[in-house]
Amino acid sequence: MTRLIGLALTLLLYAMPTYSQALQEGVRGSYSGAVESVHPDWFKQSFLVFEEDVQEATAAGKRVLIYVYQNGCPYCDALINHNMAQRDIETKLRQHFDVIALNMWGDRSIESVTGQSFTEKTFARAIGVTYTPTLLFLSESGQVILRLNGYVPPRQFRLALDYVAGHKEQEYSFQDYLASVQPPPGSGELRTEPYFMTPPYRLAERARETGPARPLLVLFEQQQCPDCEQFHEHVLGAAETRVLLEQFDVVQLDMWADTPLQTPSGEASTARQWARSLAIAYAPSLVLFDHQGQEVIRADAQFKRFHTQSILDYVISGAYHNEPEFQRYLQARAERLLEQGVNVDIWH
């Protein structure tokens, strides 16, 4: 542990001359990673009266998929040009869904299924959009069947489409559906890190065991998980991430295991039961709690370094107390780093 902290600090100190020089010279950092994408012409050109959209989709044997995006979002571009551009995914979407795009900062008028009036940005705020893309799959009655908060790779995206297009919500929760179509691996080990907590996981008693309570990061993973390996290698392995993680208690759980634990609220559970109660459907997923054990934010989709580090800093800094909208905090953090001469790559 000590050696890793030393390595992280060494790497940061190595970078300091450039950082200090940038401050002295007033050099602004560079901003990169933003990508503008063009929506497919088969997206529905909606008047944004959602009750009518649902009725029209139902009459055509389809369901409504509301896609919330923002300009310059590389994760949105990945959804459009990596997921939706694949022929089988495009075919399934066009056959089973009316896709309606909303700009989370837009000003177009919306009428919700219940008849309430919004603009795009006030609707995004009302439904609690934290990340883009956010996807809402609606039933024939306009209820949300499934919600995806952030980008998921094609394999997981296909499963979400199959779940909704096949009306599987009548038989399973999404988590149970995933377990039925892709059974948890029967063998393998999770990749560990030296700063992970060790059993027993009595998460409501951390203050007594480690001194003053710190924020808690719970990392849900699974065996034989390429996305988990990539996350460890490219995100958790970054020196900047390690420095942020030093300010958390971090516990890693196999989302399919029967590992006994005590939740931050003091309930006896297992890793599998807790993951199910939290509706964890993607590995790796991060759930972050404050020092009192209250959930602050979660990341249950694919995120790279900048966004993951920003999520960690959002909790550590206490910014969530004054800025409940994470995207506004994200923009402010990027601007602050740029003013300090730090290069910001939001797709790194």
Fill in the keyword field for this structure.
348 residues, alpha/beta, Glutaredoxin, 2 domains, four-stranded mixed β-sheet, 13 helices, globular, disordered N terminus
List the helices and strands and how they pair.
Layout lengths: L1 H24 L5 E2 L17 H10 L3 E7 L4 H10 L3 H10 E7 L5 E3 L5 E3 H7 L7 E5 L5 E6 L4 H12 L8 H8 L19 E2 L3 H5 L5 E6 L4 H11 L2 H7 L3 E6 L5 E3 L5 E3 H7 L7 E5 L5 E5 L5 H12 L9 H14 L4 E2 L3
Parallel strand pairs: 1-15, 2-3, 8-11, 9-10
Antiparallel strand pairs: 2-6, 4-5, 6-7, 9-13, 11-12, 13-14
Helix pairs in contact: 1-10, 4-6, 10-12, 12-13
What would you give as the CATH superfamily of the largest domain?
Glutaredoxin
Order of strands across the main sheet: 3-2-6-7
In angstroms, what is the radius of gyration?
21 Å
CATH fold descriptor of the largest domain:
Glutaredoxin
Global structural class: alpha/beta
Would you list the SSEs in sequence order as H and E?
A: HEHEHHEEEHEEHHEHEHHEEEHEEHHE
Q: Overall mean pLDDT score?
A: 92
CATH architecture of the largest domain: 3-Layer(aba) Sandwich
What level of helicity do the residues show?
25-40%
- Beta-strand content estimate: 15-25%
What count of domains describes the coordinates?
2
How would you explain this protein's 3D organization?
It is a single chain. This protein has 348 residues and is an alpha/beta fold. The chain folds into two domains: 50-181, Glutaredoxin; 188-345, Glutaredoxin (3-Layer(aba) Sandwich). Helices cover 39% and strands 19% of the residues. The protein is built from 13 helices and 15 strands. The chain has helices at residues 2-25, 50-59, 74-83, 87-96, 120-126, 154-165, 174-181, 206-210, 226-236, 239-245, 271-277, 305-316, 326-339, and strands spanning 31-32, 63-69, 97-103, 109-111, 117-119, 134-138, 144-149, 201-202, 216-221, 249-254, 260-262, 268-270, 285-289, 295-299, 344-345. The strands form five sheets. Strands 3-2-6-7 form a four-stranded mixed β-sheet, sandwiched between helices. It has a four-stranded mixed β-sheet with strand order 10-9-13-14, with helices on both faces. A three-stranded mixed β-sheet has the order 8-11-12. A hairpin with a 5-residue loop joins β6 (134-138) and β7. 31% of the residues are buried. The model is unreliable at 1-24 (pLDDT under 50).
